[in-house]
Amino acid sequence: MGTKQASILLGISRQRLLVLLAQGRVKGAKKNGRFWKIPVSKSGMPRIIPARRGPEGIWRKQQAKKAQMIHVNQHNIQGNKGKPPEQFQPVVSLKDSKRNDYGYELYISGPCYIVYRPYKPANCGAHVWIETYEAVQFLDTEFNLDPSTAREPSKQLGLV
Q1: Cα 152 to Cα 129: distance, rounded to the nearest angstrom
Q2: Do the strands 68-72 and 105-108 form a parallel or antiparallel pair, or are they unpaired?
Q3: pTM reported for the whole predicted model
Q4: Which of 19, 53, 59, 83 could disulfide-pair with 87, CB 3.0 to 4.6 Å?
């Protein structure tokens, strides 16, 4: 598998994966010319060798067994009105077990479904959200006014 697919599976940016590859921390990875070949374990995930020092890595160690929840925060959308773009709060939230990541644009690499529960909202109070078992990657975690650079990560993933 290549770096694009491996980074989506691991839930980290492609640049972070390239750093791990350069450090020799991806088990069994080999460089073939300009491209990396990354093997996967029996669980279907690339294996990352943990560092000896520093904080524990935040990459996925196995594929998700529980659906991730993607929620658009209406309070942040309302709060962003009238503010200059540099003060915008992120409106897209990805809830994955104990983690809650925020951003402005994300990519879902596989099937997902939209849930509407007016009488049984989620713990966060949401009535509508998206659930997926597939890897989700944030494309833009900082609001960007220049549309040409804001779409740059989408081009790298081959979406545009």
Answers
A1: 26
A2: unpaired
A3: 0.53
A4: 83
